[in-house]
């Protein structure tokens, strides 16, 4: 027995020691791929030295003597911080553009694409020399033994994929059961993967007298963030703002003379989706290149008006004026978000930069304000007439309706009313549409305020959708509203208990940012994800889109993922924020350092003044040219 005990003990110790050794090796490999922001490099492909200053948030400020060297350095830092993201995006976009297709772009844009690709490959060459843990933790679990060199066509592919993501997704038009029902166009269109929004204020509407430009981007909420902040000190002047890893230009940002942003058209304004082509992607990149080099607002408009993709509006401001292209506002149906912004605009005639930021972070839902009075009008009426509370269900229903009657539509994460409202709306939509499309759960499982408003307001006779087709009697919308409220209360009691004070919006509406590796890695992705209770809904100015998960219907894995407020009223008049850090490496302290700021509504101040960036800087790196090609890239592939 003693001998058996010793054998088992030694076996356990051996397993424990082996586990420690494996853990140590894995940790060493992971730590080896965390970039050192104070490390200098000798690289081929640049004409002169390039300095990369990382400020307190690890945002790179790139200083070079030529535009080509600056874009080389941008490719280098993109690969240094987001190599896994670059490779994942390239893999996803490979089918869009044939590899050998040639796209004509302007010489300056072609030079930027070539230099950017050389910068990415320079980092790949350094990784293949060894000692850097394959450059990204994704590559330790992915099956990519050989990494193809980055090519300019890869950046074109990513630009084309971005334009494609701006298009609304169309459902199949052969959904059954529509012959005797008024058409609901909202049934056939779902939200695009990415949407852009922007609004500007002229100088006579601002406290400083200088125009203000506010920009939002909505898309996936992932780790690393979809956007990467950078300052590129070009010979024509500095440009700062949000870059898209894989593309060598500022997408939304400002130079020393012009600030620019984009607004994509609403879903209902696009009669037919516009299919992005490689040529349109090239035009888009040329437009971004021109915007960064524009002398003033008029020059920016002249340089980009013939290159803007269909479905995008360009907004630009200078020190005194602002302009848009097209030069007249595109006629689009007013969305719930537009209605909220218009209400804030009327209520506040003069804005400061802080006021613009507060408007961007607004969490009052116009959708709730529009739908709730229609849904509850008869129920509020009955309740106020002194209806007898015969049992606990009636009492609970009355308490809930009383709470909703005093609610202002604020989707605050600590409040119960948002949860009650959206559970009610979800149950109502299910009752209205499930009988028509019993197997198409995507049509009725996720609440759509536009569909509900059209039906409840009887737009074009749409109230007939409330009738349950298989039943013999004709159900009215008020019948469905009453039944849906009981459905919602039952769901809430089962999920969160019988006390409405325990029903908190943030518990159901959690913002989930999952790690997005090159390939799905299950439990590892779950461990590296971030989750926090969140305010807002799909129709608030800071948007959070509901998931299609039946167990967690109000969880948000997509929504607003970048915001900026820009003005030329002061030297540091540019404020940017993204919901995660600059680094894509989970062991870096800059992996999630911006998440708390994002949740608290705090913005980063970015300036083209390098003396300000040096305060609290976390590293300074220099790229020096070498005269020979690096031997680690062979046959366009890196080990």
Automatic annotation (TrEMBL):
Organism listed in the record: Pseudooceanicola atlanticus
UniProt keywords, alphabetically: Membrane, Transmembrane, Transmembrane helix
Protein name: Penicillin amidase
Keyword Repeat (UniProt): no
Pfam annotation, one family: Penicil_amidase
Signal peptide: none
Presence of the UniProt keyword ATP-binding in the record: no
GO biological process entries: antibiotic biosynthetic process
